[in-house]
Design brief:
Layout: H1 2-9, H2 13-72, H3 82-92, E1 99-104, E2 107-116, H4 117-129, E3 132-143, E4 146-155
Amino acid sequence: MNELRRWFEARSLRERRLLLAMLGLAAVTLVWAGVILPVRNGLSASRERYTEAVVRLGSAQAALTQVKAIQRRQLQPLNGLLPDVVRARAAGASLTLASLDVESPDRVRATITSARAGAIMGWIAGLEGEGVLVDSLTVSPAGGNLVSAQMTLTTRGN
C-alpha cells in the first residue's frame, strides 16, 4: 500500500487529478452497472409480472362470476331431442353441420367443416346456456380465416 502511495505522490498534480477523476468515474460506472441497473431491471420485470397477475386475476374472477351465475340459474329441460336442438341451433347460427351422428339419445357427435371460429364458439356458448354441454371439442384450421370443428355434445347431467 505504501508503494502505491509513493507512486501516486510521485505523479504531477495534473496526473494525480486525472487518476482521481478516473477512479471516480470507474466507481460511478461500477455502481451503475452493478447496483442501479439490475435493481431497475428487476423492478421493471416485477411491475410487468404484477400487471399480468392482475389481468389474470380479473379474468379468473369474471369467469368465476359467470360460473356462479350459471350454477344459480335453474335450467329448463331441452325443448325436444338433442339432435333436433343441435340442428336447429346450428341453422339459427348459419352454421352447416357436415355430420351429426347420434351415439345415444343424450349424446351426439357433430362436425362442422368450415366456419369462423367466433361463430362456432358463440354457437357452443349458446348451446351451453340451454343445457347442452361440450364433452370434447377439436378445432383445426380450414384455410383462410376459417376453422373446422369436431365435437361431442351431451345434455346436462349426463
